[in-house]
Structures are given as structure tokens and as C-alpha cells.
Design brief:
mainly alpha, two-stranded antiparallel sheet, 13 helices
Length: 283
């Protein structure tokens, strides 16, 4: 489905969220003023890419389509919580982490959501809780509840990735511990994906209806589902595709971060002892 039919049916504001575009531009300007020259080109590209993906997932057509098809919803979710946070955090200078931890309120919040053990259960538990059918359908049918739960997921997602990227704070981890931490995260998210993929019947009745509440970034509207002529995309197939998309995106995100940590650690070890063919052990 092209963009023109969506704009014609729901309006430019519903499809592209111009208010969110302004917010993204302001965040980008503040980042350039604050972090310009303090981060590498790769870090700046990572932050800019994360900011763009945040807009596309939350304010672009993907958010709209996610209210009509579960597979699009899961693509949106995986981008917002598994891709965007590590990209943004990777682009922040070390002075940012040092500065925010000097604020008592932020330090107290990070002490909870940024604790590696708690973060494992907070995000993965919140994500699984959100996708319990009765909770999910309530959230997709109530604008306030929808925003509250998505804010909770976004905050816990940042807490999940904080120990991986922060160089300061109460929970420093070695590269090997970071890799183990990410591996455990992958295991904890697998049951929720498997439940969705291998379900023998649709779990979310709201996707069978023609009328949906569209929870857009700054307002909500009730709209009819657009026609889509794909005979194979039944409600069950759409649900299973959503689970597969989430699992694939998880593997891409975690694999990318694991690779980045490993090769950074490898380069550091080789720089410290370039003649040693065997890397030293990092506790």
C-alpha cells in the first residue's frame, strides 16, 4: 500500500505527525550544540540514525499501520525498543553520562532501571505483560493507557541498554559480562516470541475488526481499516509473522551490539599486547 492512499484516507497529520518532526529537529539541534566535537563521526551517525528511526517508528506510517496489522505493530515495537535505544546511547559522549548521574533524581532512577539484574526482568517482564491479550487489547483501545504502557516500555528499554553503554555509574561491566548480559536478554525475550509464533489461533481479537482506535503521538482518532488484498495474510498468519519479525529484529540488534563489543575488546587487547596470539582473560 502506497502513502498516497493513506494520506487521502487519514490525513497528512495522522500519517506523518509533523509535530514529532519538529521535536526531532529540536533534539537534533540540541545534540549538535552539546555533543558536536565530543563524539566520533560513527557516534554522531548512530545518534542521528536512532533519532530518525524513532520518528519513523512512532510518527511515520508504521505507527498507523501497526494499529491495523499485528506484524507492523511488532516491527514498530522492535525498532522502538531494540534498535533505537542502543543507537542513541552509542552516540552520546561520556560527559553526558557523567553529567546526568550528578542529578540525584536521575541517579536514583538509573540505580533501579539501570541495574543489570533488575533491567533484565523490568524490560522483558514489561514487554511480555504488554502483549498479554487482555492487556494488549485494553491498551490499543484506550489512548491514555496506550501512552502510559509505551512510556514504561521505552524507559525500561533504555534501562536495559544503559549498563552496556555507560562508562560510569554503580554497575560497571567488563566486555565479557556485557556479552553474557545481552545473551541472557535474548533468552528471556524468546518465550514471548515463541508463544506468538506457535499459537494455533489468533490471540488478539481487535485485529479482526474493521474499526480501530488510532493512538497517534498527540491525539487519537477512530478509523476504518484500509483494504489489503493479500489472501495469505490471514489474522493468524499476520500474528505469526509479527512474532517472526520480532525475533529476527532481536537477533539483528543483539548480534550487532555483541559484535561491536567483541571487536572493540579484541582491538583493545591486541593494542595492549600485540605480540600475544592468545588474548588475556577479562573478568
Amino acid at each position: 500500500m502506497g502513502l498516497e492512499p493513506l494520506v487521502a484516507a487519514y490525513g497528512f497529520r495522522a500519517v506523518f505527525s509533523p509535530e514529532l518532526i519538529l521535536i526531532v529537529l529540536l533534539i537534533g539541534l540540541c545534540y549538535w550544540r552539546y555533543a558536536g566535537g565530543k563524539v566520533s563521526a560513527a557516534g554522531a551517525i548512530s545518534f542521528a540514525g536512532g533519532l530518525l528511526l524513532w520518528y519513523l517508528a512512532l510518527g511515520g506510517p508504521l505507527n498507523l499501520l501497526g494499529h491495523f496489522w499485528f506484524s507492523m505493530h511488532m516491527l514498530q515495537q522492535s525498532i522502538l525498543y531494540l534498535i533505537v535505544p542502543p543507537m542513541l546511547l552509542a552516540g552520546l559522549p561520556s560527559s553526558f553520562y557523567e553529567g546526568v548521574l550528578k542529578l540525584p533524581v536521575i541517579r536514583s532512577i538509573v540505580a533501579v532501571i539501570g541495574n543489570p539484574i533488575l533491567a533484565l526482568f523490568l524490560f522483558n517482564g514489561a514487554f511480555s505483560f504488554y502483549h498479554i491479550p487482555i492487556i494488549f487489547e485494553a491498551a490499543m483501545s484506550n489512548y491514555t493507557l496506550h501512552n502510559v504502557l509505551h512510556l514504561l516500555l521505552f524507559v525500561t528499554a533504555f534501562g536495559l541498554w544503559w549498563p552496556v553503554y555507560s562508562l560510569v555509574g554503580p554497575y560497571p561491566m567488563s566486555p565479557l559480562k556485557k556479552m553474557g548480559y545481552i545473551f541472557l536478554n535474548g533468552l528471556m525475550l524468546t518465550p514471548a516470541c515463541a508463544l506468538i509464533i506457535f499459537a494455533r489461533e489468533p490471540l488478539y481479537a481487535l485485529y479482526a475488526g474493521d474499526t480501530h482506535l488510532l493512538c497517534l503521538p498527540f491525539y487519537s482518532i477512530t478509523a476504518e481499516k484500509p483494504p489489503l488484498e493479500l489472501s495469505w495474510l490471514t489474522q493468524l498468519a499476520d500474528q505469526q509473522l509479527g512474532g517472526v519479525i520480532m525475533k529476527i529484529m532481536q537477533e539483528i540488534s543483539y548480534g550487532w551490539v555483541l559484535g561491536a563489543i567483541f571487536f572493540a575488546w579484541f582491538r583493545k587487547e591486541r593494542a595492549e599486547d600485540p605480540e600475544d596470539p592468545l588474548l588475556g582473560t577479562v573478568s
